Amino acid sequence: GLRSFLRPPGSGKGTQSPIIKDEYCLCHLATGDMLRAAVAAKTPLGVKAKEAMDKGELVSDDLVVGIIDEAIKKPSCQKGFILDGFPRTVVQAEKLDEMLTKQGTKIDKVLNFAIDDAILEERITGRWIHPPSGRTYHMKYAPPKVPGIDDVSGEPLIQRKDDTAEVLKSRLEAFHRQTEPVIDYYYKKGVVSQLHAEKPPKDVTAEIQKSLS
Ligand code: AP5
Ligand code: ZN
């Protein structure tokens, strides 16, 4: 089946997805990760996406829908997938419905990572990531064994360019204006589960497992 993880920047989508992916053998498709990889590789998609991402604004629906359409057709994703950070607009949600209907499937569950905006700045500014694996750390809440170094590979960690207090303001504005209506869209379909995303990571994992069981 398919699940979509929606919610604001820093609410824990990227932290929880790898855990859930392994447990349920789902493919993890994070539009933000895919776009950052395209920017780093300077592909035509990356060149088009960079400006909006740096400002904390959403990338155009056409670009994002295109990468998801390609990804969900991959054989490795036929068992089902987690969509992390997608759909982010009602237009994206409608396009996704069309794509899935063609494949004879649909979204089973939308997990709403409910959290207060006030908590997010500390989470975002303290985040360190290992892009090749998607592993995420936090200076205070999930520190690596050696500061600045990935626990598993020994490679350096980096901070995201948009993880500043200032860019976070635009990201939150985009979230409230463009993504909150998507949650209503799925509420009407009766597929939304609420999570308490302000709790410690382990508790959030337990809530996700409960809502998927
Ligand atoms: P994207 O990469 O999706 O970023 P985002 O939505 O801003 O979400 P984040 O990755 O910041 O948050 P997260 O929930 O994954 O947090 P995490 O688990 O790491 O998008 C980036 C940009 O790409 C967008 O601005 C846009 O330009 C573009 N884009 C992407 N998708 C798009 C789309 N569909 N349409 C248009 N444009 C799109 O946690 C954060 C930190 O907190 C970590 O350090 C973590 O260790 C820590 N933490 C996590 N959980 C807890 C906890 N329970 N307690 C304490 N600390 C915790
Ligand atoms: Zn993320």
Automatic annotation (TrEMBL):
Its EC number is 2.7.4.3. This is adenylate kinase. It catalyses: AMP + ATP = 2 ADP. It comes from Musa troglodytarum. GO terms for molecular function: AMP kinase activity; ATP binding. Belongs to the adenylate kinase family. Keywords: Kinase, Nucleotide-binding, Transferase. The keyword Calcium does not apply. Catalyzes the reversible transfer of the terminal phosphate group between ATP and AMP. Plays an important role in cellular energy homeostasis and in adenine nucleotide metabolism. Residues 127-162 form the Adenylate kinase active site lid domain. It is an enzyme of class 2 (transferase).
